[in-house]
Amino acid sequence: MLLHPPSDVVGKEKDDCDEVLLESPTYSGALAFLQPFGVKLNPINTENKGLDPDHLYNILTSNGSKRRRVLYTIPTAQNPSGITLDNARRRAIYQLACEHDLIILEDDPYYFLHPERESLVSFLQLDAQNCMQTDSNAGKGGRVLRFDSFSKIFSAGMRIGFVTAPLPLLERINLHIQGTNLHNCGVSQAMISKMLDAWGGWDGLDAHLRRVSRFYGMRRDWIIEAAEKHLGSVNGVKWNVPTAGMFLWLQLLQFDDTKSLIEEKAADSNVLFVPGQSFDPLDRPSSYVRASYSTASREDMDVAMKRLADLIRDEK
Predict the structure, then answer these.
(1) 24-37 confidence digits (pLDDT tens)
(2) Alpha helix (H) ranges present in the chain?
(3) What are the pLDDT digits (tens) for 54-111?
(4) CB distance 108 to 76 below 8 Å
(5) Burial class (CB in 10 A: 0-12, 13-18, 19+), 188
(6) Comparing C-alpha atoms, which of 242, 286, 295, 247 is closest to residue 84?
């Protein structure tokens, strides 16, 4: 495996371990998976435009480390920020990966929810193009593993994903699966296969994907409407409108740490948010809060934003 298992890092200094470069903030589930490996997690700034290539470059050139490094990124409708990387940044990041021999883990479960997905260049696409080039990057391809998911486009209960990657890396993944969960649920795979057959190929699937994208776009508009209604008049609350996905990333400027506000006071008010600290690779306090609009009704979104606004005002 690319990453050392926990037994290999006992007694090692953290700087001697393998390194994962990743966005800050990033998906809490990925952090829960990576932390037991004992690898060094190195956060990359995201600003309001996604992973910053300049900050990535500075980290890659700041020392002469020979550690094995991978870059984990959610380029489309990122969880939790909702940010979609533009193509210029994707190309710059991929170029850095070639120059510094990074493997890219492209986790893209929200790609098919993006209303303009055809205009987005994936890291896998850049890698495939690179494999066919004869310029200075020749021989530097084959470094992207792309992960997609059916759970976001079919049903949340269908925990089925698929990976596209160079054969040597796929073989390692297959060996890992054989030693852990043997294989994915056969029933879910059979259901997905039947659904794809019923839709009659790509045209039917594409029509479904566009309906799903519109569905989540409508829900996004609902939560923005509720946020503007109840939080727009509250000083120190900021957010960006996501172009796709399921999440609204709110910054509460009057709080250095939203953990107790969300986990205690909001929970007592029967409102479920997630504090920003849960998405920080270094588990640092955060002024941010993630709201999900995937399942809540329009009425519930309105109530939730009102209760959050009341809680913020009560803290002043």
Answers:
(1) 999 999 999 998 88
(2) 6-9, 28-34, 53-60, 87-99, 123-131, 167-178, 186-199, 202-230, 259-260, 267-268, 298-315
(3) 999 999 998 666 677 899 999 999 999 999 999 999 999 999 999 999 999 999 999 9
(4) yes
(5) middle
(6) 242
